[in-house]
Amino acid sequence: MAADQRHHLDPSKLDDASSSELAERVKELDCLYQVAAIFAERGEPVRDCLERVVAVLASACRFPELALAELTLDDFEACWPECPGNRTGPRIIAPLRVDGKPRGEIRLAYRDPGRDSADASTPEKCDLFIAEEQALLDAVARQVGVFVAGVESERHRRQIEVTLWHADRLATIGQLAAGVAHELNEPICSMLGFAQLALKSSEIPAQVRSDLDRIVDAALHGREIIRKLLLFARQTPASKRPVSVNDVVEEAMFLLEAGCDKSGIRFVRDLATDLPQIPADPVQLRQVITNLIINAMHAIDSKGTVTVRTVARADSVELLVVDTGVGMSDDVRRRVFDPFFTTKDIGKGTGLGLSIVQGIVAGHGGSITVESDPDVGSAFSVRFPLLSSEGNSVPRELS
Fold first, then answer.
1. Pairwise CA distance, residues 367 & 381, whole Å
2. Which of 30, 85, 220, 339 has the CB geometry, 3.0–4.6 Å to 355, for a possible disulfide?
3. Are residues 226 and 318 located together in one domain of the fold?
């Protein structure tokens, strides 16, 4: 570098205006460095990182003691200082985009320090924000967008890994369940057949007849478990046709109401009158509704209400089964769809009912969620896609 150039860049040779301008550029570069350092750490929640960025951004303004920095991202908002004053001074805005989609904005403004101020270095005595500060704001907005996109991408990757692990686990369990079911089916059917044949004899003692009745009951229970295992492991596609959910609900509730052994349970129907048809296997759909209602009935100790509601959505039909039973803890709610998980006593549940429901719903391109609070009750929500004009189910947009 030439001697005259070194002399030109020497801060001691600059006038006051040039020194002030150089100091502002240094502040802006330092701001970008601090923002990059905050995102590089990634040791804090995203909200905390964004709050730190806002504070750093405010300190990079020409008048940091009067600066107001705000950031909005979806429903989140960060502000520095926490209690801003009047927003009557100059203002600049940079849009905040994540993966090219507008998600919010970052704003810089000055609070009103009072019109009686005699200080010539206040925003009232100066022009609006300079071009370099707008460029700084745009650069920070780009950094924030890249950071948020990276965090969301990582979160999505972890969710996919969990989903794939769960799917692989279910496939393994399904293969094991199918093998075990086929191996057990023959001996259980043999026991059931011989026990029922022996009961036809009129010469057996009363005690033997009682024991045979117990064998028959146990064999029937085992056969029901095998049936559920085979259904859980089934790979064949559903036989779909246009179905009215309301009609299937009425059929299922008619049978369940008649066979309910708890007099304190009240059944409520809240069915939409303009409900469109959905492409579904009516037998499997009836099984979904039956399992959800039975699950709700079991959740009620003595008295309570089971409400079945249908709602027409823009792209789906929603089925809700709500009970006023004992509810579930967060741990139980997270595991409620896991195969063989049950909170019932041994011999009173297989833990396959809700797993089968989830599999049927997924096979129909739908989704199922549950909300529950202990001692309040549970609400299962199932959504089935509508039938399109071509006869196929309408694809659901990603949420």
1. 8
2. 339
3. no
